[in-house]
Input
Amino acid sequence: MKTLEFTGGALVILDQTRLPDKEVYLPLTTPDRVREAICALRVRGAPAIGVAAAYGLYLGARALDRLTPETARGVAERLASARPTAVNLTWALERMMRALEAHPGAPREALERRLLEEARAIEAEDKAACRAIGEHGLSLLRPDMGVLTHCNAGKLATAGIGTALAPLYLAHEKGYNLRVYADETRPLLQGARLTVYELARAGLDVTLICDGMAAAMMKAGRIGAVFTGADRIARNGDAANKTGTLGLAVLARHFGVPFYICAPTSTLDAACPDGGAIVIEERGAEEVAPRGYGETPVRVRNPAFDVTDAALIDAIVTERGILRPPYRL
Ligand code: MRU
Output
């Protein structure tokens, strides 16, 4: 199982909309196909989206009649419009654009080589960041602990071993015997379809629960810590993540369970003062509404993310170490 791989001619992704039933790999050869895969959540999770977009920009740049910062910017802007909340998307594309702009007048071949190097560096750095997050996060775990996670912040969301799931993988290697609980994560079931799939395949002890069960699991003393990822973290520590994360953080505080966010520094948005400035993606009603209303109009809201207040986050684990409140990122 490989989340994504650049083969030279194509970005090959594991189509996450088909999991857990089938492992289908899709070769993406144009930025439009990469954009579609990001919009449709075939490739998803903030760091993986950034890596995919970087290769998408390289593929687009290669196909341009004239490769200049201006023509490449058009490709980058189209890719950036795929999803608004995960800052890793624009972070990776801006990094690619800076690599291009740093060599004005260079021959085309050199510019293309430079873009490919940068995309490969973004992927390699993400892989290294995941491992480092895992090593720092391990210090927050104890043998035999019950850990609750939401959505999917694992191998399927990154180029490496994940963010929130990275400490769990390392703990498993050390024989910690954790009991992991995965929220199903309505409406698209990233927890049920993806987190349970990847953790079970790796041999971890994982139990699927409905989102609404988290409170009772905490009350029963089964949860020693909550670990989630993030899509964008504001300067004050407010963190956007999959809808339902805020509720978990409130519950965790009520029941005295530590709540941790794990994310690479590419998820920190220095331009964003607090959570109120984070744009939340609204997705289609069909993802939420059950069928069967016939002609009856039903109003649906489907914000894909919510923002957890910094005050509810006991620590933010990055590849550089563990940050504690008050956050000044
Ligand atoms: O809509 P998704 O599936 O892309 O949402 C993903 C999440 O909310 C993850 O928790 C987040 O991107 C962190 S991934 C390491």
Notes: The radius of gyration is 20 Å. The mean pLDDT is 97. The longest strand covers residues 179-183. The chain is about 35% helix and 15% strand.
